[in-house]
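Appendix C: a fully annotated inverse folding record. The material below is reproduced so that readers can follow the format used throughout the book. The structure is listed first as tokens, followed by the designed sequence.
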């Protein structure tokens, strides 16, 4: 039962003669509209995708890349540190015996499910050889879920397309210029399916048995331990 003391009575405000005409409010609204119409420098609209929005932060974490070492080989040593640290369990690695004498293992298969990823950066923090990094590129699109699983060759292709960018660190194993400075680089080669550049490096990476970029996008890769 509602008690009388619980009822709050609100009196309608008494409007002045000017307020009853609503002219001040209308003129105030018109002033705001005109200010936005002619404030050209303050326009927020971006004609995407022709026009790219400038990132507000330098350390934006976008699409992953798998770095190459100075000899052009995949820098990853298949230690599983990144997949262990990943809170989203979206990194799948299959290690194989390295064909090179300076390391024991290398990744025969290396997949990242970019849809499951939460772009936390834990993987690049965990990597002892700075082989995995997140680039500032945000233009990652795909038409199927499988397309959003980037395989080893595609991740290497991202590196090839963004090697001039050094997102956050300058490790000696990669040693690229522009240390600590990020810039936006569009990764054209990844989701458009152009794996030619990646294929060029496949033999050099000792990946002939692992197959090309298409392997990562096959149905087998999608159901191969990504759950
Ligand atoms: S950024 Fe985070 S969620 Fe994404 S792969 Fe790396 S560790 Fe996993
Ligand atoms: S990317 Fe780095 S942390 Fe992940 S398996 Fe390769 S070497 Fe280890």
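Designed amino acids, in order:
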């Amino acid at each position: 039962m509602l008690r009388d003391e619980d009822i709050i009575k609100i009196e309608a405000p008494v409007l002045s003669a000017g307020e009853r005409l609503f002219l001040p409010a209308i003129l105030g609204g018109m002033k705001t509209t005109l200010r936005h119409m002619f404030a050209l420098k303050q326009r927020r609209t971006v004609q995407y995708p022709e026009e790219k929005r400038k990132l507000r932060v330098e350390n934006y974490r976008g699409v992953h890349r798998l770095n190459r070492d100075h000899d052009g080989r995949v820098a990853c040593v298949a230690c599983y540190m990144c997949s262990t640290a990943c809170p989203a369990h979206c990194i799948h690695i299959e290690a194989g015996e390295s064909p090179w004498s300076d390391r024991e293992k290398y990744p025969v298969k290396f997949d990242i499910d970019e849809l499951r990823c939460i772009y936390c950066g834990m993987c690049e923090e965990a990597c002892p050889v700075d082989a995995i990094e997140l680039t500032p590129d945000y233009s990652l699109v795909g038409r199927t879920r499988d397309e959003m699983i980037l395989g080893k060759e595609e991740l290497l292709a991202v590196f090839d397309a963004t090697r001039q960018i050094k997102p956050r660190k300058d490790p000696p194993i990669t040693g690229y210029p522009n240390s600590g400075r990020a810039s936006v680089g569009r990764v054209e080669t990844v989701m458009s399916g152009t794996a030619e550049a990646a294929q060029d490096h496949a033999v050099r990476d000792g990946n002939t048995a692992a197959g090309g970029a298409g392997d990562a996008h096959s149905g087998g890769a999608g159901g191969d331990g990504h759950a």
